[in-house]
Predict the 3D structure of the following.
Amino acid sequence: MELKKSKDASIENLRAPIVFIGFLFIGSLVLASFSYSSAIEEEDNGDGEKRSTAIKYSQEEKKEDTPPPPTPPQVDTPPPPQEEIVEKKNTEKEPEVVVVIAPPDLPKGPETKVEVKEEIIEFPDVEAQFPGGAAELQKWIAQNVQYPQTSIEMNEQGKVYLSFVVESNGDISNITVERGVSGDLDREAKRLVRSMPKWVPGEASGRKAKTRCRLPINFTLN
């Protein structure tokens, strides 16, 4: 008797190898895809490196090939004109050296006092007078007069008008004959006034002052 297999049993027997073949096919596909992508990446990396090196090489070639910029032609510029040096004559005068020689110390002589001239007051507040007054003045003249002998012989007589200055200390100075009679009588009148004692000085503004006085001396023969 001949044995016959059913369709279900044959299909069941083929399932396992079919599944195994399918896994193998899928695994091969997966491996092929991974290997292809890695190969592409390696090619990309290789090409990139090649490209980068090619770019660098081309840049270097370009750098080497580009000639340097031409240098501008040098033009010989004339030197700046030199200013003429003019020698100026020295017009400055050399400083004069003045040598001052001090005189030797001389012995000092007597010191001279410089007297300040006081103003002569013509019209003082208080008149200068002879000590004792006018009566004592007439008495003193009568006692001290020396009538010149020539004037007696020639009968000369009259008034001799004199002016003089009484200093602030009472001394008499600057005797002047304003109107005389004769030479002998004029000289005698001046001698009398010169030989008088100190007068009482006059006063002006409350202080003793230098004043001018006038005095007539009468010469008479008895």
Q: What stands out?
A: Helices lie at 7-65, 134-144, 149-153, 183-194. Residues 7-59 form one domain. Residues 1-5 have pLDDT under 50 and may be disordered.
